[in-house]
Amino acid sequence: MTPPMTDPEEQPELLPGMVRATLKASQAKARATRERKAKQAEPAAVDPVARVLVDVPLAHLDRPFDYAVPAAMADDARPGVRVKVRFAGQDVDGYLVARAATSDHPGRLAPLRRVVSAEPVLAPQVEALTADLAERYAGTRSDVLRLAVPARHATTEQRASPPAPPWRGVDLPAGEAAWAGHEPGAAYLRHLADGGTPRAVWTAAPATDWPALVAHAVAATYASGRGSLVCVPDGKDVARVDAALTAVLGDGHHVTLTADSGPAARYRDFLAVSRGARRIVVGTRAAGFAPVHDLGLVVVWDDGDDLHAEPRAPYPHTRETLLLRAERERTAALVGGFVRTVEGEYLLRTGWAHELAAPREEVRRRVTVTVAGAADNRDTHARGARMPREVHLAIRDAVAEGPVLVQTPRLGYATALACERCRTPARCAACQGPLALTGPTTPPACRWCGTVAEDWSCPECGHRGLRAPVLGDARTAEELGRAFPGVTVRSSSGDSVVPSVASRPQIVVATPGAEPVAEDGYAAVVLLDTWLLLSRIDLRAEEEALRRWANAAALVRPGGRVVAVGDAAHPALQALVRWDPAGFAARETAERVEAHLPPASRLATVTGEPGAVDDALTLLDAPRGAEILGPVDLGDGECRVVVRVPRAQGVALSHALGQLQRVRSSRKLDAVRIQVDPPTL
User: For residue 491, what are the β-bridge partners?
Assistant: First the structure.
């Protein structure tokens, strides 16, 4: 039934009543909202103060800030969780690192905006490690935390991490048998199994299945109820260690942490470690921050590889990260590789670690290394040949028995061209860039601007012929295919890296770092253009050259042969022929001590615009004994200064550089890039 219409004359009397009712309702709603917010903002009864590391990349704000913990968030606001807080007028991310009963802040604390997730992802030991690294490398903790904690994946976080399956137990005799030939490997394993913390620098012998030896060391540590952390240079090495751990431990006892896994898989494996469901981790440099429970062993393999150096600020090195963890968490350590770095040699000299190495007789049994060209001095043309007759004979004899690896330092076809007559480098007429060939049928083109130079002629002698003083892997594979018809020739380089090859006869041409692993090892390994690696203008040129040669040569099968083409009198090649990386590292260390270079000293570089670098030097309170080297013009409007101090003053230098960063940040001065102990200059 329709209600009767109100008389229009009565409406003005009803309107004020409706307004009053609406106003009362709105006031009641506002009062209820205020009461609810007040109740929500009521501080927690226990430890109402949260100390939060705010994700702000400003050095002068790199410290925990105090916030109030609302009672409604008291249960979820635990140390290690992600939170949102109000900072400088906006909501920012942060990590809650501690709860406290009181605060030194005199005023009223702002409350936490919300707890993003109740999952504690920042373990106390990792939080302390980030502080150590930020101080060591003169960076900010927010930058280190971005390296340490992967991005959140909410769906993955809601799933439980399955427990590790029952373990069949450690086979210590099998581990000792695997380590036979490296002394005192058996004693090292027994010490790990007994819960000890031995620390060693391991120089692996050629033809060593190093992933298996690492897996047995991890198994011995696992038998003592402790976890392990293994860091290797790249995904190919991760896959090898992953397979070895599965063979020794069985499925489900370890996880791999790499960027290639994808965000969901990586966060799933990270949570399995953080929750204690897995206590063995293998991965690349970011895995060095994995929150392993009861950590007992840290392993870094091939610590001289530049992939271990983080390219993002504050540029920590995996070796230093793991050594800091070993010191802080009192764990065992294993720094290994086929060569010994000067940093590894320094660990031995200071007594921090002991040596693990194969005796000379074992090395001789496993490999024979020769330098090609020395026997051909009677033939002038043979001395200048890129692949002397000795190399062809070695490949011919070995390929009948199995695969042969040929390492060439350059990627591409013909990466540099020169006049065939007078050897003048071929340059682009448009930009003066170097000319190169990308294939056997393509005309020469500039590597900088891409301009094709079909009608090139030498500006010095007018000759039109070109020669290639530097050949890439593609041209090398083409030449070997013509020299050995009927033999399969494969390439592994760049974006087409082959992880492994079968043991059948074939020739594999690879660039350094892309060498595939042969099933039963290579029958022979050939190292071409050794002069090219030695010609780098770098502090570590010889050390890096020896490392790359040794990594390839070590893939030979026991009793195999290695042939290097180069100057037999060069110290680095002599060290390879004798397989004496320890002696080479000792010589390099002695030379660096005399020259006051790392590791005998501590270096830092300050890079930026000239004015900004000059301001930084003015503000830097350098420790006593500091030397300022430079500035050096780097081009593109940048220059660099090197600050050098004795190693004993290294901590003081890091502190001074950190203070410099804070002063510059607070004054909003032009930015400079600071690197402590850069891997290269």
Answer: 509
